[in-house]
From TrEMBL:
Its EC number is 1.6.5.-. This is NAD(P)/FAD-dependent oxidoreductase. It comes from Levilactobacillus tangyuanensis. InterPro entries: FAD/NAD-bd_sf, FAD/NAD-binding_dom, NADH-Q_oxidoreductase. It comes from the Bacteria. The lineage of its organism: Bacteria, Bacillati, Bacillota, Bacilli, Lactobacillales. Keywords: FAD, Flavoprotein, Oxidoreductase. Residues 4-319 form the FAD/NAD(P)-binding domain. Belongs to the NADH dehydrogenase family.
């Protein structure tokens, strides 16, 4: 009887545990570890941070969706020792395994930027995303007494997918908060080092569409702004002439990028930004019993010769491959390489708008079609990682009427 241990109940880990139940013999032991008892659909965290969706709409209890044969341990992983085949947890005895899937996910990355940890709000899990919205509402409510314009200014640092999607939602929710607390207009500012946005899209008109959306909703997009420091109540940045400026804001949201879980570096893996390069079957070089998937892994795309981006869709697909490969290995068969077929890539701009590219054809989509595609991707992920009942309770069905 083999013990198969999955670390992390995010997109990659939940998908892996679901497929392991089909792929490995019923006598094998399946254990899932996550520090939280709740799975959050992290591609929707920006909606929680902007207050356009209730946190309960993007979460489900891990115990409700894993099959009865899976043992779930709620605890934090502190160390992974692949030589000793041992995993250390914060509050339980260490675990040993025959096969291991490491799917510990991402964390917000400050790049050591001065004041970022102390003065900016990350958005990397449900708790921090809820805290962003609470902070925004507190400041707007407090304006009645403070009359401080900084309380009505939200600075979003970084215009990657996370920053853009957050801004899109904020354009919808901030007019409602303004009306609720009867304040002057709430100001949205975005600072981005690059001089263009959304470089991953082949069709450059998608970036233009997004900039027009932001202008229409009075979002100030400060491209070419290199953030140098976050002070209490201000973002300090330099422009292309190296001149220093500040944006005064009492809500500063940090969306300048992510790295894999710190556990990877702490455990001594050969990693870059906590991502470990894996073999084409997703196993670790020299350790065919260890699979590293999702945001803690770097999987080379044979077409581009560069690692795939770290997206939820790739995390899901890698969960399936790792589970199937463990099933093959247990039956003494050869493992198979990871093959990835994207449904498409979409950045939402509010609930009814967005920009994206479809499938591998890179056909551009914008507006309502793009937001519908994102909902289809979300629904498919719920169905494939949880249960039909989870999809019915949490899925995005508004696009079907
Ligand atoms: P990112 O790394 O993609 O974007 C961060 C942005 O911050 C970049 O545009 C970068 O130029 C900017 N930046 C970095 N340092 C800066 C500085 N000092 N000053 C000013 N700007 C600075 O990070 P993200 O948006 O959090 O996305 C992380 C990953 O998750 C990506 O792979 C992304 O594709 C993925 N993601 C996908 C979706 C989706 O598919 N809808 C949504 C969110 C995130």
């Amino acid at each position: 009887m083999a013990t198969i241990l999955v670390l992390g109940g995010g997109y990659a880990g939940m998908r892996a545990i679901k497929f392991l139940q089909r792929e490995v013999p019923s006598e094998d032991r399946l254990i899932l570890v996550d520090k939280s008892g709740t799975h959050a659909e992290k591609t929707n965290l920006h909606e929680v941070a902007a207050g356009t969706i209730a946190p309960g709409r993007i979460t489900y209890e891990i115990n409700d969706v894993i099959g009865r044969r899976v043992e779930f341990i709620q605890d934090a992983v502190t160390n992974v020792d692949v030589d000793q085949k041992q995993v250390t947890l914060a509050n339980h005895d260490p675990l040993t395994y025959d096969y291991l899937i490491v799917a510990l996910g991402f964390q917000s990355e400050t790049f050591g930027l001065k004041g970022a940890t102390e003065n900016a709000l990350p958005m990397d899990d449900l708790e921090t995303s809820e805290a962003v919205y609470r902070h925004i509402e507190d400041k707007i409510k407090g304006y009645a007494d403070s009359k401080d314009d900084r309380d009505l200014t939200i600075a979003v640092c970084g215009a990657g997918f996370t920053g853009i999607e957050l801004l899109g939602e904020l354009t919808q929710s901030m007019p409602k908060l303004q009306a609720k607390y009867n304040t002057p207009a709430i100001k949205l500012v975005c600072l981005e080092r690059a001089t263009t946005i959304l470089p991953m899209f082949h069709d450059k008109t998608l970036a233009d569409y997004t900039m027009r959306f932001m202008a229409k909703h009075d979002v100030e997009m400060k491209l070419g702004s290199n953030i140098a420091e976050i002070k209490p109540g201000a973002v300090v940045y330099t422009d292309s002439d190296d001149a220093e400026h500040e944006v005064a804001a009492n809500t500063i949201v940090w969306t300048v990028g992510v790295s894999g879980s710190q556990v990877m570096a702490d455990s001594g893996f050969d990693q870059r930004r906590n991502r470990v390069v894996v073999k084409d079957d997703l196993s670790l070089e020299g350790h065919p019993e260890v699979y590293i998937i999702g945001d803690v892994s770097a999987v080379m795309d044979p077409d581009s010769g560069r690692p795939y981006p770290t997206t939820a869709q790739i995390a899901l697909a890698s969960g399936t491959t790792a589970a199937k490969n463990i099933g093959l290995a247990i039956r003494g068969r050869d493992t198979k390489p990871f093959v990835y077929k994207a449904l498409g890539t979409v950045a939402s701009l509010s609930d009814r708008d967005g920009v994206g590219e479809v499938f591998s054809t890179n056909r551009p989509v914008r507006g309502y079609m793009a937001s519908a595609l994102k909902k289809v991707i979300t629904d498919r992920s719920l169905l494939e990682s949880a249960k039909v009942s989870t999809l019915l309770a949490k899925g995005r069905f508004d696009l079907y009427h």
